[in-house]
Write a structure and sequence with these properties.
alpha/beta, six-stranded mixed beta sheet, Metallo-beta-lactamase, Chain A, 14 strands, globular, single chain, binds zinc ion, binds fe (iii) ion
């Protein structure tokens, strides 16, 4: 069983350490900064084998070069975006896999937030590291990609097993919940999520990870086929992409 440790850094970023006790292998996902990672590695007596980068933004790759200098790690990123991933060593594409001990880590390409965004999926651990693509009750902003690309990326995630834990890269859940509530005030699953979020945040705890089942039931960006949402938007007959686009634009203005 892989151990997953969440490190809150900067304003609202999460870095994840993934450790396989059998082989001793350890990976870090999206090290925005290096120091907290080095500290955690030392505390656990773990040595770093891989940096896994979901995309090129500074709050995901900021610690790459310092960590590479101070550990024996290799940096893993998306082949098509290799020019923007500092220190990249291992270049992967959709469907490629990497192993951490006996555990397979699968690359899922998920353009939208950036054109070269990827996620890391570990089936045997029911874990998805999805960077800035899917957030709890939200999704990433479209900085480089299109709404269509983002919706296709989210649909790939939606097809994973329901128990999959969604390890996203930011604690945006409370703000996302306010927008979600404005769209679906009568969704019981969402109301339940909001209660959970309030409790966790008042205890200064992380709301991440949620599960895919929770997101499918309460995250509108995965619910563009739901009739109540279409009605709220007064877009009863619109295709799913138009619904998604409208939701993303409303969230930008919210
Ligand atoms: Zn980003
Ligand atoms: Fe980010």
């Amino acid at each position: 069983m892989l151990a997953i440790q969440q490190l809150p850094v900067l304003n609202d970023n999460y870095i994840y350490l993934i450790h396989d006790p059998e082989s001793g292998d350890t990976a870090v996902v999206d090290p925005a900064v290096a120091d907290p990672v080095l500290k955690a590695l030392k505390q656990n007596n773990w040595s770093l084998k891989y940096i896994l980068n979901t995309h090129h933004h500074a709050d995901h790759v900021g610690g790459n070069l310092f960590l590479k200098e101070h550990t024996a790690c290799k940096i893993v990123g998306y082949a098509a975006d290799q020019k923007r991933i500092p220190g990249i060593d291992i270049k992967l594409s959709e469907g490629d896999t990497l192993t951490l001990g006996a555990h397979r880590i699968q690359v899922i390409s998920c353009a939208g937030h950036t054109t070269g965004h990827i996620a890391f999926y570990i089936a045997d651990t029911e874990a998805l590291f999805c960077g800035d693509t899917l957030f709890s009750l939200g999704c990433g902003r479209l900085f480089e990609g299109t709404a269509q690309q983002m919706q296709q990326s989210l649909k790939k995630f939606a097809a994973l097993p329901l128990n999959t834990k969604i390890y996203c890269a930011h604690e945006y859940t409370a703000a996302n919940a306010q927008f979600a509530y404005s769209v679906e005030p009568n969704n019981p699953a969402l109301l339940k999520m909001i209660e959970r979020i309030k409790k966790l945040r008042s205890d200064h705890q992380s709301t991440v990870p949620s599960t895919l089942a929770q997101e499918l039931a309460s995250n509108q960006f995965l619910r563009t086929d739901i009739i109540e949402i279409k009605q709220t938007l007064a877009m009863q007959n619109a295709p799913e992409l138009a619904i998604f686009t409208e939701l993303r634009e409303r969230k930008n203005r919210f």
